[in-house]
Amino acid sequence: MLKSGEVRVNGDVAKNAAMQVHENNIITIDGQQLTARGSRYFILHKVVDSICSNVDEVYPSVLNFLDVDKAFDLHIAGRLDADTTGLVLITDDGRWSHNVISPKKECPKTYRVWLRNEITDEKLPELIEQFTQGLQLQGEDGLTRPASLVRVEEDDLIDDESYRSEVLLTITEGKYHQVKRMFAAVGNRVVGLHREQIGNIVLGDLAPGEWRELTMDEIALFAS
Ligand code: URA
User: Fold this and answer.
1) Do 100 and 127 fall into the same domain?
2) Nearest CA to ligand 1 atom 7
3) With pLDDT > 90 as the criterion, what percentage of the chain qualifies?
4) N or C end of the chain, less CB within 10 A?
5) What local confidence, expressed as pLDDT, does residue 23 receive?
6) Pair (139, 161) in one structural domain
């Protein structure tokens, strides 16, 4: 279209694909004026057996749950494993998602974690200290950043034989399988993982598989 002279910027024919244009430029194709769609921002409650990738592989992409126009033009800001549930942020604003996921931004992410082995009263203080000091994960150079661990008290536990303890863990980085590897490093095993919060954005009562647009205030939290 550029080559054939159909594209005009502020009335002048534009042929250079590298030309920079700005929001207030008037761009037409064959006389039809284009309108720029603003960026889009969503929160979704991911279910198990869905994946945070734009390509459907063994499992469907979480983008299939978003019944919005051109959902596959969006991307996921911070992936979860196929068997992890919870809060996923989705956008087409690369700068915004960078602010969510870049380790340099140290954005806190909170996970509810169900564990195979019990965390006894005796072991708890040492475990909290280990997570605060940082753990050595296999194949990584340095220690993990300080992470905060809170045990969910016995009375709050749902009676389920498949796990022996439940914790809330907040980390400020997002290495591959980080939470599972952190608990493996202290001899425990994650049997269930659910992300509840990213920065000040909380999943709240959004039902599994449901989504909504982020509010202006939520979007502003990661704007730069
Ligand atoms: N850490 C994990 O191990 N898995 C996730 O899905 C997210 C964080």
Assistant:
1) no
2) 80
3) 86
4) C
5) 78
6) yes
* Cα 202-208-212 angle, rounded to 5 deg: 55
Q: What is the dihedral of CA 161, 109, 131, 102, to 10 degrees?
A: 140
The position carrying tokens 């980085």 is 173
The verdict on 60 and 81 lying in the same domain is yes
Q: Ligand 1 centre from 113 Cα, in Å?
A: 10
144 and 209, same domain (yes or no): no
Measured from the Cα of 195, ligand 1's closest atom is 7
Same domain, 10 and 117: no
Whose C-alpha lies nearest to ligand 1, atom 2? Answer: 177
How far is ligand 1, taken at its centre, from the CA of residue 24, in Å? 42
pLDDT of residue 205: 96
- Range of 5's domain? 1-36
Ligand 1 atom at minimal distance to the Cα of residue 83: 6
Active site residues: 81
pLDDT above 80 (res 107): yes
Please indicate, yes or no, whether residues 186 and 112 belong to a single structural domain of this protein: yes
Global pTM value: 0.86
Co-location of 54 and 32 in the same domain: no
Distance 111 CA to ligand 1 centre (A): 9
Residue 158 has pLDDT above 70, yes or no: no
DSSP-assigned letters across all residues of 62-120: GGGG--STTGGG-EESS---TT-EEEEEEES-HHHHHHHH-GGG---EEEEEEESS---
**Residues in contact with ligand 1 (CB, 6 Å cut-off):** 80-81, 84, 177-180, 193
